[in-house]
Structure formats: structure tokens, C-alpha cells
Specification:
hpI Integrase, Chain A, globular, two-stranded antiparallel ribbon, 2 domains, 3-stranded antiparallel β-sheet, disordered C terminus, 5 strands
Amino acid sequence: MNIILKVLRQSLDRAVAKGWLPDNPARKIDLLREDKPEINPLSVAEVKAFLGKGLQEEEDRRYFRVAFFSGLRPGEEIGLQWDDIDWQRKMLLVRRSVSRFGTGPTKTVESKRTVQMLALVERALRGQRAASPLRSPWVFSNRDGGPLDITNLRKRVWRPALRRAKLRARTLYQTRHTFATLMLELGESPGWVATQLGHTNAEMVYRRYHRFIPNLRGRDGALAAKGLADEVTRRSQGVTGLPVTP
């Protein structure tokens, strides 16, 4: 409803600008309250269980390896075409998104981006290319050669795999959140993670995911405690000045 209202507002704004309307009545209607998106990522152990016990088809494993380790939104991965893969530079070109309403542009202008292809992702995509006759332009295609249906993927693959792996129910979008939290837990730069996700800066990464990474760069107080302990030792030895911790 909010998306429809925003489009209507923009359309009527143009009518006002051209003098066809005295004012924009859609501006008098408030947007509906939207809850913050749930962030419920899988742990490393849960990803392994999902890919192992949860999935029965190797093609599904290749799809979800890309999903968990690329940071693409589900619609962006479904919209991935073979021409979007730069094998030499190991990059994915995110150009479009596929939803239940059809093929369209990415969610935002910033979402149209170049994503670094990690080794796990490259192996999965090379495996998909080897297994695919390449008659379809879509990397992950249906039996007719068209793009996957996201509703069908959610109902027939994602949810049953969670049950088989004995994992709690989650939305399909959690694959993207899983990528972000796993990369940060492994010590990757929030700026790099933001670029992979298509955010303009690292602020949203810190705001959304920091609570899942209690030891990110020692921000649990461990570095401060160590520095103070070192200073006490140094002072007892007659040395002043806090040590520089890399």
C-alpha cells in the first residue's frame, strides 16, 4: 500500500507542477506504519545443515551457496543472467530483479552494482554452468528456460529444506542477512560488506547487524581492558604512555 501511495504522490506532484491540479490530495494521506525488517540470520552450523541435510538437489545447493555467500537479494539472484558474470574479474553485475510481478529494475539506484565473486560463489556458478545446457539466458532457470518463480522457490525448496534440517522457520530474505553477519564475524570490513549489499555507506551495516557481532573489533570492551591492564604494568615498571594497539 505504501509503494502504491508513493507512486500516486509522485504522479500527482507532476500534475500540480503542470498546473493541472491545485494541490496533491495524496499528500494528505499518511503512509502506513511499517515494522522494521526482521533480521534472523543463520549461523555457520545452520548454513551447513541447510545445505547438507536440508537440500536434496545439487542445483538447489548451488543456488543457495550463491545466496548465502554473495549478499544478493533473492530477486537479484533470480534475475542473474550469464552475461552478468565477469569470470575474468570475478565479478557479478547486478542489473535487474525478478519478483512475483515480473522482471524489473533493482530495488534502488545503489542496488545496481558490481559484486565481488567469492571463491565459494564462483565454484557454485561454474558448477551451474557445467550442468546447464546454457540455452537459457538465466543462470538459475525453470524447466521452460525462464527465470525461477520466487513463490515456488520459497514454498517448494526453502521451507521444506528448513524443516528437514530441523531449523526454525525464517523468510527467504534471511540468506542476505546471513551473508552480512557471517562476513562481519569473519572480520571483513563493514565498508566492503556495505558495497556488496548495495548500501551507500557502512552506517546501515553497523545499525542493522552490529548486535549480532558482539566481538566485532573488540567492541565488547576486551581491547580497552587489555590496554588498561598493559598500562598498569607499564607504570609499575616506570614507563608512561598508553601502548598503541594495532
